[in-house]
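User: Can you predict the 3D structure for this chain?
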Amino acid sequence: MFPQEQVPLTPSESAARFKYWQYRTIIATMAGYMLFYFLRKNFSLAMPGIESELGVTKTSLGLFLTLHGLVYGLSKFLNGYWSDRMNSRRYMAIGLALCVLVNVAFGFGPVFASLLSGTASGPAFMVALVGVFGVLWVLNGLFQGSGFPPCARLLTHWIPPGELATKMSVWNTSHSIGAGLIVILCGYIMAYGGPGAWRFCFWAPAMIAGAGMIFLLWALRDTPSSVGLPEIPGTEIKGARAGEPVDKQFLRERVFLNPLIWMIGCANFTINLVRFAVLDWGPTLLKESKGVTLDHAGWMVAAFEIAGIIGMLAAGWVTDRYMGGRAPRTCVFCMAGAALFMFLFWILPGTAPAWVLFATLLAAGFCIYGPQALTGVTAANISTKKLAGTSIGFTSLFSYASVIVSGVGMGALAQHFGWYYAYAVIIGVAVAGTLIFMLLWNAKANAYDEVDA
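Assistant: Here is the predicted structure, written as structure tokens:
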């Protein structure tokens, strides 16, 4: 039996097949990254239970958030570098599996602490418990860094630059869908689960994500060429073959020595400080500064995320339709809006009608998530698809450096001075982000017409 000669696809067949794989890749990576969020944004809803049942302080909880974020930022950068050189499908699935294992172990944290300290209570147990929780959440941050970079690489290989803002904004809704669903799920677990319910904030998402890992392996393929399709026209890098990484000089010029990439990184710092402050401290902040119950707080933080979905879609569409792909221009208006609505939310009293609090927080979420999505688009288009994972990973170092302020900084500030000053920091940082994006107003939409490897 001789192998049959493969019949070349007609242009229309090739286009249809490419579109199928493009949408399949977008949907699969959205689902996969949503599950990464299941395994890291569950912590914020478990925090009140960990504090009340185990006696872990707000400062310690904030320290866990800070260490997790710092390690995640560094891991995202390192994983970005390596994911540009490896098979993204396997890379993402293995990373998700490691996060599942850490979350399962976190639920058994008191058991590990008892074994280490030889007691189930007292100072020695508390030291061991804080140590166990800290190590496990740092490991989670380390493994979480394997989620976004392979997605960035996949998307820039399957989506043309002129469509990237719109379609990557659609993809970026996975952040909000994942975070929104998990705060609702864990909000109900905490509200009705009784003593020890915080453990199921880790175990339940881990079970769901375990099934998702199998789905990723089935659904994803690495590049168009891996399924017999041509690469996207107009995205070729002179001197670089489709399956090979670019040289070190190109890496330095397009990422590490590129002032635009550094400015995007600084903007990311401001965006994520505002975003993480609401996501990580939202339930506690709403409960203590506005008198909102935890189950209602879960819905409000979820609504912040849902509004973010609409904001991301609108920002991506506006960028491609009216801004010529120049995402920083859209971000100027978004960050200014985020600063305004966070200020309005700050000055509203706890006795204000619930719908007013709800609507104001929704408006802030609508505004902040556009820039969160578009900075990745900007970094990818400036560095090209060959370095999308590396550039986004590098700018993410700045993003997750923000957890020094949004994590332990906010925890200590709230514990010693109250939430009044925490709000002031959030608003001031949003204003700073607006100014940075104004400096990027004239940045080009993409760099494919000016680079070679």
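The chain has one domain: 15-224+243-439. The CA atoms of residues 36 and 96 lie 6 Å apart.
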